[in-house]
Design brief:
- The chain is α+β, with helices and mostly antiparallel strands.
- The protein contains 34 helices and 17 strands.
- A hairpin with a 4-residue loop joins strand 10 and strand 11.
Length: about 750
């Protein structure tokens, strides 16, 4: 049954006895039981089966026997009343209120609970039940953000947008979920066909397959051919020279279809619509993240909650042709073997279990394939999840940075240098693995002097495509002829994420160099690329286009607007809509979007900054000032708000107030080179020595920043330190004449 995932998804759309043009529709898992009893039995009781359930005696795991839980000086009570499961806790206004639990989410190692609100909105409690046994510390209530002191109005509070079920959770926990949000009435009418993740969630709508079963005599030969074709040619064999498994796969398309079906939910991504069907291209419905700094460490290891997919894309396993169902039963979701035995289904046990390979005592944690190559990280307080990048341990990449490594996760009393020396002694070198992009990402994020060259080293290496896509976004930070040529090459890459990243980088180049190339991508086969091209061209004047091109652009802009309208229940989407409407000179719609963004999330910093800029451009200066001060009242620790207010004061010629605000921004975000540079310039006329002090401090962290270096050239001249001025002038020329040999 290994290939039943793809087999059924194709059968569901072929050989149907329905009308040829009729769309397949969902029929529910009960229709599958008669023919697929084995698979149904395996699925029952799985995490997919119990992904979401109605709150009742059978589904509820938590202690609702008048149990108390205190968090941030607020005591919540979990109790039962008239057969209902209830919680008394702080609501949207911060006051205690009684709420009925309507649904549950998951069962192990934690279970979450959901509450219905007016207008179809459903929210997920941030107090969860630890389902583990008592020996493991479970059977207790706990808060998902124990150290954040979350209160009403906070983005992480259970009543806020980040714990809204309709957008954040529903798509992955139920079958054929339709969000149905009306942005005019601000009402949800969310529907599903099956409450949990059932057969059709992965295999697609089953009506045509069911029709085929009713008339199989006429289709059995064709059907049998289809099944044998899917099985034919896919086999793992051990290479006698390398002792590594090699995949013989005559049907590579099926491999990617399977992975993308899983990626729909097992990835950190943005949802573009709710029309995905089994067999669709993932990037036509979802925008996956890259190795972003807040999500992944520099070497690509998991940091925040990222749900497997982008980690797997980094791996040699993915490169070799491994799929999710090579290791996991797609119905039980369990591994196909216990512990390291799952690895030995393909890798030769005698070779990789030997101390000559792992250099640890047999049976110890250090001898475990999973511990070393899939180190785990805990999410949601109790959920240990293994990193699916299947990486070679690289303690050398942890030296002088925060990135963890498998060695020191066990040897906590040692440091990364000790572990690096041990590996060199064992193997004579540090095994390379697939993480050599680590130093490049570290350099690019810090804007170091060697950042441009390190970027090119990644693009010319055998690094995973997701790493190349991540560094490609930085090409626009170094707009030279060399980087323009490279960006153009990346625009033509087969990998959709690399194309999109290169397209983002193109925005840094002059319009005459990029408009024509961006226009071509309005017809890219992948929606994630088309939407970025449309966003960039949204301000392009339609009057200058001939009719055919005008139509292409209008269709792309409509598609982009529809993508945003799908997610208007999210505050950040409202900001994107505001920009789109501003570019289209629809200023009333733009302002409405800014106001809605703030209504949805009163602590959304970019909303205040962008709305203020919008008002400033509309010559509504006093209103722009009021928006910034309102933002500072809500989020006083946001440096960008103080920085923006300082710039407002500069435009208003209130220098003393400007300097005070700009200084506050630097104090709040000392690592922000832009804030430092602007403040240094603001005070440099009267206090060049202080300006130099600020710029030097920031330069230590951002040695590739042209503004900092040019500022040091200028202010050292002002204090007559020509030696230092010439020193930085030389560095400036080196940065400006950047080229790669």
């Amino acid at each position: 049954m290994k290939y039943i995932l793809l087999t059924l998804s194709i059968l569901f759309t072929l050989n149907a006895q329905e009308k040829p043009n009729m769309e397949a529709h969902y029929i529910g898992d009960k229709s599958c039981v008669e023919c697929h009893s084995k698979e149904t039995h395996e699925w029952m009781g799985s995490h997919h089966d119990e992904a979401m359930m109605v709150a009742d005696e059978k589904s509820m795991k938590g202690d609702f026997n008048d149990t108390l839980f205190t968090y941030n000086n607020i005591t919540s009570i979990f109790y039962r009343k008239d057969g209902k499961y209830m919680v008394k806790t702080d609501g949207e206004d911060g006051k205690l209120a009684d709420f009925e639990i309507a649904y549950t989410f998951g069962v192990y190692p934690l279970q979450q609970y959901m509450v219905k609100f007016p207008k179809g909105r459903i929210q997920v409690l941030d107090i969860a039940w630890d389902s583990r046994d008592k020996k493991q510390g479970g059977q207790r209530w706990y808060h998902l953000h124990p150290d954040d002191n979350v209160t009403a109005g906070d983005p992480l509070h259970w009543t806020g947008p980040n714990l809204n079920w309709n957008y954040m959770c529903a798509d992955c926990h139920s079958t054929n979920l339709k969000k149905n949000y009306d942005h005019k009435t601000k009402r949800y009418a969310t529907t599903w066909d099956v409450i949990n993740v059932s057969c059709e969630a992965c295999h697609g709508a089953g009506s045509k397959h069911l029709a085929w079963t009713k008339n199989r005599e006429h289709n059995i030969s064709n059907s049998g051919f289809l099944v044998s074709l899917l099985h034919k040619g896919r086999e793992w064999k051990i290479d006698p020279d390398t002792l590594n498994p090699v995949l013989h796969d005559a049907n590579k398309t099926s491999r990617y279809s399977e992975i993308e079906v899983c990626a729909k939910c097992h990835s950190r991504r943005t949802q573009l619509d709710d029309t995905f069907k089994a067999g669709d291209k993932f990037h036509n419905h979802y925008l996956p993240t890259l190795l972003n700094e807040n999500l992944y460490y520099n070497d690509g290891k998991i940091k925040d909650e990222v749900y497997v997919y982008n980690s797997f894309l980094q791996s040699k396993m993915h490169e070799a042709g491994v799929t999710c169902t090579d290791c996991h039963n797609p119905h039980t979701l369990e591994r196909k073997a216990e512990g390291d035995k799952i690895c030995f289904r393909c890798h030769k046990m005698d070779t990789y279990q030997a101390p000559s390979h792992h250099k640890h005592l047999k049976g110890s944690t250090g001898a475990s394939c999973i511990s070393c190559h899939m180190p785990a990280r805990t999410y949601m307080g109790v959920d240990n999840r293994n990193d699916h990048s299947f990486r070679v341990p690289r303690p050398d990449l942890s030296i002088d940075n925060e990135s963890p490594n498998a060695c020191n996760l066990c040897h906590k009393d040692k440091n990364a240098s000790w572990a690096t020396d041990a590996m060199k002694e064992w193997y004579g070198k540090i095994p390379k693995g697939k993480q050599d992009f680590s130093h490049a990402l570290e350099s690019l994020r810090a804007n170091s002097a060697d950042a441009p060259k390190s970027l090119y080293r990644v693009l010319m290496s055998d690094a995973p495509n997701i790493a190349k896509a991540t560094v490609s976004t930085y090409l626009g930070n170094y707009p030279t002829k060399q980087t323009y040529t490279t960006t153009m090459q990346m625009l033509r890459n087969k990998d959709v994420s690399i194309r999109r990243s290169a397209l983002q980088a193109m925005e840094a180049f002059p319009p005459k160099l990029r408009v024509k190339e961006i226009f071509k991508l309005l017809q890219d086969p992948m929606k994630t690329v088309r939407m970025e091209a449309a966003r960039q061209l949204s301000s392009f004047p339609l009057g200058q286009l001939e009719s055919t091109k005008r139509q292409i652009l209008e269709e792309a802009l409509t598609e982009y607007e529809n993508i945003l309208l799908f997610a208007v229940d999210r505050p950040e989407t409202q900001l994107s809509l505001a920009l789109l409407y501003t570019n289209k000179n629809e200023f009333a719609k733009a302002e409405e979007a800014y106001k809605e963004a703030i209504r949805l999330q009163i602590k959304l910093v970019p909303a205040y900054v962008n709305y203020s800029d919008f008002l400033d451009r509309q010559k509504r200066n006093q209103e722009a000032f009021e928006i910034l001060t309102k933002g500072i009242e809500q989020i006083p620790t946001a440096g960008i708000l103080h920085h923006s207010l300082g710039l407002w004061y500069i435009r208003s010629k209130e220098k003393e107030k400007a300097n005070k605000s700009l200084k506050k921004a630097v104090e709040l975000e000392a690592n922000n080179s832009r804030f430092t540079y602007v403040y240094a310039v603001a005070i440099g006329g009267t206090n060049p020595k202080e300006a130099i002090k600020l710029l030097e401090r920031s330069y230590k962290q951002h040695t590739g920043n042209l503004q900092l270096v040019s500022g040091l050239v200028y202010y050292y001249k002002q204090v007559n330190n020509l030696t230092k001025s010439l020193e930085y002038e030389k560095k400036l020329k080196e940065l400006q004449s950047f080229s790669v040999r």
